Amino acid sequence: MRATARLLQSCRITFFTRKTCGLCTQARSVLSDVWDQRPFAFKEVDIVDPKSKPWLDLYDFDVPVIHISKSEAPEEDPKLSSQAVKLMHRFTVDQVKAKMDLVEKS
User: Fold this and answer.
1) 92 pLDDT exceeds 50?
2) What is the pLDDT of residues 20-78, one digit of tens each?
3) Which residue, 6, 69, 82, 88, could crosslink 73 as a Cys pair with Cβ 3.0–4.6 Å?
């Protein structure tokens, strides 16, 4: 059972968002549809939160942004964001699943 649960959540998606973001609402819906088909570990980062300032500096005009990584990977680091597997702005269920496939194979 434990191995199955780990397999089901072999990816982590970090969702960079802000409260006043219409595209973020759409992105959240896409992520919910992905979750229904393929569960993943999830972390949400409100870039406007003062402790998320490095993310605000990076993604102020780009949210929504998702980083897809292996679930056991270290927490996201703004200094390494250029290396992240990511999608920005508008994305589909199929695009998210394709990035998850890429991460799982790496």
Assistant:
1) yes
2) 899 999 999 999 999 999 999 999 999 999 999 999 999 999 999 999 999 999 999 99
3) 69
Amino acid at 55: W
Q: What is the pTM of this model?
A: 0.89
Length of the chain, in residues: 106
How many CB atoms neighbour CB 27 within 10 A? Answer: 24
Are 69 and 103 in contact by the 8 Å Cβ rule? The answer is yes
Q: What amino acid occupies position 62?
A: D
Cα–Cα distance measured from residue 99 to residue 106, given in angstroms and rounded to the nearest whole number: 11
Distance CA 66, CA 86 (A): 5
Q: How many CB atoms lie within 10 A of CB 13?
A: 23
Cβ-Cβ contacts under 8 Å for 73 (sequence gap 6 or more): 12
Rg of the chain taking only CA atoms, in angstroms? 13
CB 106 within 8 A of CB 17: no
